[in-house]
């Protein structure tokens, strides 16, 4: 297997930035979709999309956003990242070869919003682990954070600790943030804020320590996050995709959302070997 510069940085730092990952037309379609989001209460539903904020200070999060319309469906197998995600976490070349979307949501963060730093290789969680074995990537989960607005100083950008996906230890200052989720100002040595232009995507393994700084600027930070994993996974919050969505997807997209169709009496499947 051959490797490139992005592979080198992904292994070294735990993340890479994909510049201009989506084109201007698609970016406009996504922002128009954001403009049409209803003002949902916490736990409220909009079709098969639910407002389910992960952290009260993080801002509005609409889970299962792939049900939010075609602009979000086009992200399922987007050419800017799908093949690389498959190679990093899709168990490529095995009997369980293929990708699955573990979680997908839209996030709107306004002034004052932040997210405490979390994760790190020290936990050894299989679902988000980083592994490179016998020359092959075997990650548990790889995330795409797509910026729909410019994210610079004061905008509540994503924090990462480069290399922390391989760590076996957690600094005391990070341990404190685990105990007090609002203690976002105490950061481990080496933490950096990632700045993105609208249309750029941050691709990172979930074992990487990450979070977000407080947004101090007016306006809002808009991102879409898709978490990819191997086909034997299940959606983090138990969402099931609607029959209407599955029926209109391309075969390639449907296979990512539903890699293992429901096995019901009378249903024909291939012969097992």
- Treating each run of at least 4 consecutive H or I residues as one helix, how many helices? 7
Return the structural class.
Answer: alpha+beta
The CATH class, by name, is Mainly Beta
Strand order of the largest sheet: 1-12-9-14-5-4-3-2
Judging by the overall fold, what is the CATH architecture?
Answer: Sandwich
Number of domains as seen in the coordinates = 1
Question: What is the H level of CATH, i.e. the homologous superfamily?
Answer: q2cbj1_9rhob like domain
* SSE arrangement, N to C: HEHEEEHHEEEEEEHEEEEHH
Strand content: 15-25%
Give the CATH topology: Jelly Rolls
Radius of gyration: 18 Å
Largest sheet: 8 strands, antiparallel
Low-confidence stretches: none
Head-to-tail CA distance between termini: 27 Å
Q: How confident overall, as mean pLDDT? A: 89
């Amino acid at each position: 297997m051959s490797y490139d510069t992005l592979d080198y940085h992904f292994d070294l730092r735990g993340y890479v930035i994909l510049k201009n990952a989506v084109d201007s037309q698609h970016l406009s379609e996504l922002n128009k979709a954001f403009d049409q989001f209803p003002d949902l209460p916490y736990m409220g539903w909009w079709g098969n999309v639910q407002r389910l904020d992960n952290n009260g200070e993080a801002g509005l999060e609409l889970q299962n956003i792939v049900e939010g319309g075609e602009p979000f469906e086009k992200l399922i197998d987007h050419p800017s990242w799908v093949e690389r995600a498959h190679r990093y976490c899709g168990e490529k070349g095995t009997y369980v070869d293929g990708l699955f979307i573990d979680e997908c949501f839209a996030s709107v963060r306004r002034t004052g919003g932040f997210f405490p730093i979390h994760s790190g290789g020290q936990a050894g969680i299989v679902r988000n682990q980083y592994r490179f074995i016998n020359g092959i990537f075997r990650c548990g989960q790889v995330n795409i954070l797509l910026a729909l607005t410019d994210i610079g100083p004061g905008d509540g950008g994503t924090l990462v600790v480069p290399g922390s996906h391989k760590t076996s230890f957690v600094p005391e200052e990070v341990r404190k943030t685990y105990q007090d989720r609002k203690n976002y100002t105490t950061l481990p040595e080496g933490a950096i804020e990632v700045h993105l232009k609208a249309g750029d995507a941050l691709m990172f393994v979930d074992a990487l320590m990450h979070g977000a700084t407080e947004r101090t600027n007016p306006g809002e930070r808009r991102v879409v996050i898709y978490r990819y994993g191997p086909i034997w996974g299940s959606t983090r919050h138990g969402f099931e995709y609607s029959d209407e969505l599955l029926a209109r997807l391309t075969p390639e997209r449907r296979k990512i959302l539903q890699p293992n169709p429901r096995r019901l009496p009378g249903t024909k499947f291939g012969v097992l070997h």
